[in-house]
Specification:
single chain; mainly alpha; f41 fragment of flagellin, N-terminal domain; two-stranded antiparallel ribbon; 4 helices; rod-shaped
């Protein structure tokens, strides 16, 4: 008959040692990662909740970065339109000046030379203002959707204006990379009004995006 001798005390000591080693390893892992739950075995239910919260927090953090990018885009567009407004106002001023009957043909030609230079610069700004490769003032209205948070509903649209120098309000005062020297004051007013409206829209969306950044920063 076989006899198996078992040292109960030794087994208990071994089990206790193994458990202590496991707990020590778990504690060391928690210290190194800064997290209470590092694997499903630590807390299965807690892991699922933590994963969900982590996804939300990371989504919010990325949304804040997206919103800041959107603010930069809107600021770039608005800054360019500010320059366009200044140039249109100067062109209008020159139109008022040259319609004065005291100016000679040479004087008028010199005034129109400046108008043409301003028209060329407006064309340059409208056709070449970009943000990360996106043409901000293309020949068709463009909507940029900014994902500002971690859920599908957390979006803000930036509606970029259609500022085509070949059609629309600007084309009445600028065409072919130069000024329309016969443009009327009313046509300048219409063009300036269109650009001003676009600037107001961009300013409003900047405020919305900034509010989203502030709100989600507080949440995160």
């Amino acid at each position: 008959m076989n006899v198996i001798n078992t040292n109960i005390s030794a087994l208990r000591a071994t089990n206790a040692s193994n458990e202590a080693s496991k707990m020590l390893g778990q504690a060391a892992e928690r210290l190194s990662t800064g997290r209470r739950i590092n694997s499903a075995s630590d807390d299965a239910a807690g892991l699922a909740i933590a994963a969900s919260f982590t996804s939300q927090i990371r989504g919010i953090a990325q949304g804040v970065r997206n919103a800041n990018d959107g603010i930069s885009l809107a600021q770039t567009a608005e800054g360019s339109l500010d320059e366009v407004t200044n140039m249109l106002q100067r062109m209008r001023e020159l139109t008022v000046q040259k319609t004065n009957g005291t100016y000679s043909a040479e004087d008028i030609a010199n005034i129109e030379t400046e108008q043409n230079a301003l028209g060329a610069q407006i064309t340059q700004v409208v056709e070449n203002t970009t943000f990360n490769g996106i043409n901000l003032f293309s020949t068709a209205a463009n909507t940029i959707t900014i994902q500002t948070g971690g859920s599908t509903a957390d979006t803000i649209d930036i509606d970029l204006p259609e500022l085509d120098v070949a059609a629309g309000p600007l084309s009445a005062v600028v065409t072919g990379g130069a000024a329309v020297t016969t443009a009327t004051l009313d046509q300048y007013d219409t063009a300036i009004g269109a650009v001003t409206t676009a600037r107001a829209d961009l300013g409003a969306v900047q405020n919305r995006l900034q509010s989203a950044v502030t709100n989600f920063t507080n949440v995160a």
